[in-house]
Predict the structure.
Amino acid sequence: MRFQLFEKFWVAETAGLAEASLERWLRERIERQGLKPDSIRVQRTALAGGRDEGTVQSALEGTQRMTAKVIMPFEPDVLFQLMNDAAGSERILIIDRLLVRAGRNSLIEMDISTFVRLSEPAR
């Protein structure tokens, strides 16, 4: 079961490539709908396990959580399509936070997280 879960993680040779890949995935889906995101910032966090979680910690060794903060103009159709793309992705994508600011300059602030495992570079 662990291997089935790992198959849904983002995989990249380096942390920088993982960040760039997630940003590109988001940017492509937003721009495909004819909208340009104001900002996409990706941040990584190592997963921490406690002393009593030795097996969990060793199983997650080398796994990091990536969170992308997306700020873009509010267009309902674009938002729904992006959420649909995230739900239908073969990778785990979690919408942690969604804030819609309505009004004259309506925009969306969204935090989308996933997990990444760094792979060994091909030689």
